[in-house]
Amino acid sequence: MTRAQPVAERGAATGLGRLFAPRSVAVVGASASPDKAGFAMMSALAAFPAVFPVNPQAREIAGRPAFPSVADIPVPVDLAVLTVPPLAVPDVLADCASAGVGAAVVCAGGFAESGADGVRLQERIAEIVADTGIRVLGPNTSGFVDPARGVCANFMPAVRRLRPGPIGIVAQSGGMNLALCFLLRREGIGVSLAVGLGNAVDVGFAEALDHLARDERTRAVALHVEGVADGRALMAAVHRVTEVKPVVAMKVGASDVGEFARSHTGALSGDWAVTRAALTQAGAVVVDTPGELVDAVAALGYRRLPANPDPGVAVVTGQAGPGLFIADRLRAAGIRVPELSEPTVRRVRALLPPVTYQRNPVDTGRPGATFPEVVEAVVSDSGIDATLVYALQEQGTEQIAAGLARPGAATVFVTGGLEQQVRRQRDRLRAEGVPVYPAPDRGVTGMSALVADARARALRAARIANATFGGADVPVVPPAGRFDEHQAKSLLEGLGLPGPRRVVARSHAEARRALAELGGPVVVKVCDARIRHKSDIGAVRVGVHSPEQLDAALHGIDDATGGRATRYLVERQADAGTELIVGAVRDRAFGPVVLLGLGGVDVEIRARTAMRLAPLSEVDARDMVRELPSRVREGARGRPPVPVEPVAALLVQLGRLMVANPQVSEIDVNPVRVTAAGLIALDALVLLD
Q1: pLDDT in tens, 650-661
Q2: CB 232 within 8 A of CB 590
Q3: How many angstroms separate the CA atoms of 243 and 464, rounded?
Q4: By three-state DSSP, how is residue 146 classified?
Q5: Which CATH number fits domain 578-688: 3.30.470.20, 2.40.160.10, 3.40.50.970, 3.40.50.300?
Q6: Beta carbons within 10 angstroms of residue 607's beta carbon
Q7: What is the spatial distance between Cα 553 and Cα 397, in angstroms, rounded to a whole number?
Q8: What is the pLDDT of residue 565?
Q9: What CA–CA distance (Å, rounded) separates 3 from 688?
Q10: What distance in Å separates the CA atoms of residue 473 and residue 652, rounded to the nearest whole number?
Q11: Using one digit for the tens of pLDDT, what is the confidence trace for 468-497?
């Protein structure tokens, strides 16, 4: 590329190759002063051969000739790293683009994250990108690291000591990018490419993930997410990556429910929960902490199970206590730990003392001479898809390394002992594709990641094989206005979800006639679209049998509403049953999201909600139902079990309604009661933008 090329040609020729795999790097703002960012960047790039410091006040920096500007460098420059103050960035970036530079890393802060002036400054960068085609990482980023190529475009010189390896990192935070790099290094695991996106004025999640999907050195991707502007683009990128390699994602912000906390559905979704649900639906393994992220990619960077909706995991242990802990944690995580087949049990029995437990977990008493054969027997069981092996290093477990690493042995190894011995064994096993952990709980995290990834790919295959978003035509919702409860229930009846028999009464006299028509017991409520949470103000009365009770209920509602009640909803009281919440919200980043969880008194238990982005397939909808606690699904305390197909059909239809009617911002059906006669909506809220 020459400096004489037109802007349009330069824009067409640039790409992430010149950003992440440059042949030459200019450090603009390079400095010989140790307290300057330009000095730190030169130190980090010390091992890269073609680095050109740019500083008009210096002739030489870090033993390299310095140049007054990028245009004065005598060779084409692929990447410019800008370590200049924020106000200088737009002009310097424009100069780089004019000089034919393909990409830039903008490290400075003080842009959109800092207020209105910073927003305007960042907009100028975006305009330069659009006009010239130069690619930009940042601003407000620590940069990126590629240890194998020696491209450490990062202001922390210690990144030079990172080792190459199979893990790619895309982190929204430059600081988290560095934290994950060094956590992996502590575990003896290297990185292929580690990217901090920063404010992502140009290069964002989607392009960075696509780059790693094509990178042959990367075997698993660690993804850190804080906030998302285009959720569907992120989902699509994660989906593309997980088709060829696993992604482990961590979403920050569990306590933020944002502006959606207007109803139960909104409060249960929130940015954190919706993003996690979207990442999971796209095929990622979602974790909670940086430590879990490292342990998960430590497994998936070395092993990937075949797609399987319900893998069976075996535990072989040299010590009973840790083995029991591991099996318990696996089961608590919803992972199947099946009994071994009788042929395998007979084979193991011949290898072990009779006092040990041999059906799964397999307790060997201690790793002895037959330990490798025991592991081989368990791994070969037709009902076992993966095996977690625990043995203390000093008890001679070196002998099992060959067995663990044999082709087809999907194993995770947990060991302990002296660090020098453990490190040697760990490196040997990882070289053979066996994940190794120093503690039982961390081994469980690694195995859980393998299982979650296998399940996600099986779900994707089922979704493709049974792709349907069908059902009856969904109702057309008016473009504006307000829904009262009666109107909301009428809308849901168009989706196949009935409400109780009901009458809207405009006076006490009409309410008394409704009671006579419906018969007791009835529920009496205010019917007013302006009042969203009627029970909170005492405007709902249940168990009304007689005219006298009805009069008392109506007067109570009048008092609760300050005399504003002009309409009342009188409806037949439903039979007892299990209560669910079914709802949907329109997330600003991800669009329509469908939710299923426990209703009634359990509605606030966030862990008991399942979410999928709409439109959702029947496969996804059934999977949501299966996420309900088993005691609820099966009908606890004599209540009817939750019918999978009707609930799944309702979820699919609710998603279709949201897609077809973009003016609907939220639907909250709480509770949906599961009765012996079927599903029935006891309360409903519909909000329009």
Answers
A1: 999 999 999 999
A2: yes
A3: 13
A4: strand
A5: 3.30.470.20
A6: 8
A7: 74
A8: 87
A9: 54
A10: 12
A11: 655 668 899 988 889 999 999 999 999 999
Q: CATH 3.40.50.261 region(s) of the chain?
A: 307-464
Residues 33-83: tens digit of each pLDDT = 999 999 999 999 999 999 999 999 999 999 999 999 999 999 999 999 999
Q: What does the alpha-carbon distance between residue 40 and residue 24 come to, in Å, rounded to a whole number? A: 18
Residue 268 neighbours by CB under 8 Å, 6+ apart: 581, 583, 595, 597, 603, 604, 606, 609
Average pLDDT over residues 442-463: 96
CATH label, 307-464, candidates 3.30.1120.10, 3.40.50.261, 3.30.70.3040, 3.90.550.10: 3.40.50.261
553-583 exposure pattern, b = at least 16 Cβ within 10 A, e = fewer = bbeebbebbeeebebbbbbbbbeebbbbbbb
244 DSSP 8-state letter: T
Out of 139-148, 169-178, 402-411, 448-457, least confident range: 402-411
Contacts of 596 (CB under 8 A, 6+ apart): 580, 581, 582, 609, 610, 611, 624, 625, 627, 628, 647, 651
Give residue-wise pLDDT tens across range 12-37: 333 699 999 999 999 999 999 999 99
Name which CATH class applies to 7-218: alpha beta
Task: Return the HEC string of 344-372.
Answer: HHHHHHCCCCCCCCCCCCEECCCCCCCHH
* Average pLDDT for the chain: 90
Q: Which helix (H) or strand (E) holds 64?
A: strand 64-65
- pTM for this one? 0.91
Q: Is 563 helix (H, G, I), strand (E, B) or coil?
A: coil
Half-sphere CA count of 375, side-chain side, radius 13 A: 30
* pLDDT (0 to 100) of residue 177: 97
Nearest to 667 by CA among 452, 393, 475, 388: 475
Q: Could you name the CATH architecture of 501-572?
A: 2-Layer Sandwich (3.30)
Q: How far apart are CA 492 and CA 475, in angstroms?
A: 9
DSSP state of 554: H
How many residues are recorded in the chain? 689
What letter does residue 312 receive in the DSSP assignment? B
Domain limits, CATH 3.30.1490.20, in the chain: 501-572
Hey, what amino acid is at 324? L
Kindly report, residue by residue over 158-185, the tens digit of the pLDDT. Answer: 999 999 999 999 999 999 999 999 999 9
**342: exposed, middle or buried (Cβ count in 10 Å: 0-12, 13-18, 19+):** exposed
Which residues lie below 8 Å from residue 4, measured CB to CB, with a gap of 6+? Answer: none
Instruction: Give the pLDDT of residue 427.
Output: 83
Report d(CA 515, CA 526) in Å as an integer: 15
CA separation for the pair 346, 367 (Å, rounded): 19
Domain span(s) for CATH 3.40.50.720 in the chain? 7-218
pLDDT(348) > 70:
yes
Q: Which two tokens stand for residue 678?
A: 């079927």
